[in-house]
Amino acid sequence: MNILQRLSLFLDRPLFPWKSLIVGFSLAQYGFETFLSLRQYRVLKQTKPPKALQGEVSQEVFDKSQAYGRAKAKFGFVSSLYGQLQNLAIIYGDVLPKLWALTGVWLARINSPTFSGEISHTLIFFFTFNIITTVLSLPTSWYSTFVLEEKFGFNKQTPTLFITDIFKGQALMIALGAPILSGFLKIVQQTGNQFFYYLWLFSVVVQIFGITIYPILILPLFNKLSPLEDGSLKTGVEALAKRLKFPLKELYVIDGSKRSAHSNAYFYGLPWKKHIVIYDTLIEKSETEEVVAVLAHELGHWSLTHTTKLLGISQFHLFYVFTLFSVFINNRSLYESFGFHTEFPIIIGFILFSDALAPMDTVVKLLMNILSRRYEFQADEFAVKLGYSTQLARSLIKLQVQNLSTMDADWMYASYHFSHPILPERLGALGWYGDKKSESGAGSSAEEKDGVVKAGDREL
Predict the structure, then answer these.
(1) Global confidence as pTM
(2) How confident is the model at residue 431 (pLDDT cuts 50, 70, 90)?
(3) Catalytic-role residue among 380, 410, 425, 448
(4) Among candidates 327, 322, 252, which has minimal Cα distance to 10?
């Protein structure tokens, strides 16, 4: 008997209070994250910008940034409570066993020999549950888009586009999710106790497939990619890629302004063929050299093998998750704690296992953010060595102002939540001592005051 089998037997104890334990984990995480958010909210009530930014942003811009931060924080308090109440209702209302039984009835009514068994049952259950959670999330999603973001000038979506995106997302979930989920279940069913090896290999294949089809089939459903027009920006980016021996295949502009004033730049693709995508809003609000400086930072991640290292870490994490799942998959006490006494579906086991793993995921998140912030400093340093110190600093300040991004942060909150250092830390590392103050940030022009640009999830 190997160590995994011993651990499996040790954890499968009759009447073990798994439900109370998982609820306790969830409430503890909610309480901890609320505590951190309250600490950050105090920072957002400050009336003066950090010393490093006092010569870079006006009081008016700082006040608006703080107001935006407080609005998001208040929304976060409400949405996290709403999510926590949903989770408790699902657990104590026995939603999972009831929905599993209901979808089983639906499957029986279909009465088709080609659409039967656990895999077919799981597909109906999963997509039904996904629709329910999507509907439950609509109030917070709508408020975030059409109230909060609208108030501060970031939203560009129409209600029609918002709803259309939801339907497209659900269609993609069915078209891609069905074969992937079926493959996941089939591997677990057919490969015995060592299924985690094959499941991990399957996930690698799925990731490669996803990278390949994303720009061809998925992205065009939501945005339009256009080749970057000839000019100084294209020449500058191509020269940078050539200098770094970056395998650039195509340079694109994406119509990010279709949905919001968010801006970003990123690259994607296979190791031997990369594509760079620049948001139209970033081009509109930045000087050419500033955009090139931003891409110098991004390509720094590639040149310093940050992307490869993070990919390796993510693969190790996936393997470790699947390995631990093999310990829980036959845990009868876990299933029975949540109302499954006669059937033990694989998908339910994975959902409950994921909930039990939450404390470990919190630790992983903290460690990954620490590593990510370190990589950001290294990528900034890389851009400086290429001669983009001033341009990168100006770009970061300009984006900070246009985005109304948080200009200061509580150290505990930042350590847990932020994958990027805050701006004063980055400017200090760049050796930036200031240029000149303006109403819209360092180096801003009159045109830039007409609007604001909010960065995407991954700030530059």
Answers:
(1) 0.86
(2) confident
(3) 380
(4) 327
